[in-house]
Amino acid sequence: DVGGSVRSSGINAEYGDMWLVEFYAPWCGHCKKLAPEWASAASTLKGRVKLGAVDATQFADLAGRYGVRGYPTIKYFPAGAKLDAEEYDGGRTADDIVAWAEVKLEQFAEPPEIRELLNDEVFAEECREKSICIVSILPDILDTGAKGRNEYIDTLKSLGDKYKKRKFGWVWSFAGEQDKLQESLEIGGAGYPALAALNIKKNAVLHHRGGFSKDSINEFLQYVIAGRIAPSVLRKDVPKLRKATPWDGLDGQMPEEEDYSDLDDMELEDLDAVKTEL
């Protein structure tokens, strides 16, 4: 019962918390019928969505503030204290309430992290533990610079947000950094950037053959979801990944060339000696 905590201030959804609040009357038959369903839904959603109840006969001003006209009335309070209440328009069974809340959770969920493949732990969390992971192999930093690489990563972030309810894993590396993985997935042979959808539990990989644009990858993912692309069977076991150094976000640096200037100081007799030995 949240009534006591909202006597004067109204209902404030704490930042990060989503609330469903039932306004009821003790004599209401429909409210009594809803009570066990409400309790069951609250148990199922514990830790993800907060459910509360307000006796509108005791807190009439509060009920009036939120436009309560009959009982039971359920109001939805999005996460964020400054957001207004919305009408709950779902069913009255526990399953209905849970399903409705989960849709809202997906709408406001944070997009997935696009993780660099730095070690085998990242691969396990994003690919072995999820049904599908999207593996991207980007060009070497010397080929794109920081700006070009960030553009590729931004494309992946946008798609990760679009498909966040699918719970895909999203990982990236760059050409040659995880060469054994590339060999196992048969990715990158036609150039970079390259992208594939991996279902390691089914030992299957689907290769994206188009460009590395949002529209092209989006079309590929739609085909993957619809089952319109035939997967390839992994012909080699996925190896354990090497530990890599995280990208520092900067442009790449060309390796320093060897300094051969000391050859100019070589004495002519030394050259003659070399010739004699030869």
Q: What topology emerges from the helices and strands here?
A:
Layout: E1 19-24, H1 29-44, E2 50-55, H2 60-65, E3 73-77, E4 86-87, H3 94-107, E5 115-116, H4 120-128, E6 133-138, H5 141-162, E7 169-174, H6 179-185, E8 194-199, E9 204-207, H7 214-226, E10 232-233, H8 268-277
Parallel strand pairs: 1-2, 5-7, 6-7
Antiparallel strand pairs: 1-3, 3-4, 6-8, 8-9, 9-10
What does this structure look like?
- By secondary structure, this protein is an alpha/beta fold.
- The chain is 35% helix and 16% strand.
- It has helices at 29-44, 60-65, 94-107, 120-128, 141-162, 179-185, 214-226, 268-277, and strands spanning 19-24, 50-55, 73-77, 86-87, 115-116, 133-138, 169-174, 194-199, 204-207, 232-233.
- Helix 1 links the parallel strand 1 and strand 2.
- Helix 1 packs across helix 3.
- It is elongated.
- Residues 1-9 have low confidence and may be disordered.
Largest sheet geometry: 6 strands, mixed
Instruction: Give the count of helical stretches.
Output: 8
Class inferred from helices and paired strands: alpha/beta
H/E order of the elements?
Answer: EHEHEEHEHEHEHEEHEH
> Which whole number gives the mean pLDDT?
88
Helix content: 25-40%
Sequence stretches where pLDDT stays below 50 over 5 or more residues: 1-9
Strand order of the largest sheet: 5-7-6-8-9-10
Termini separation: 96 Å
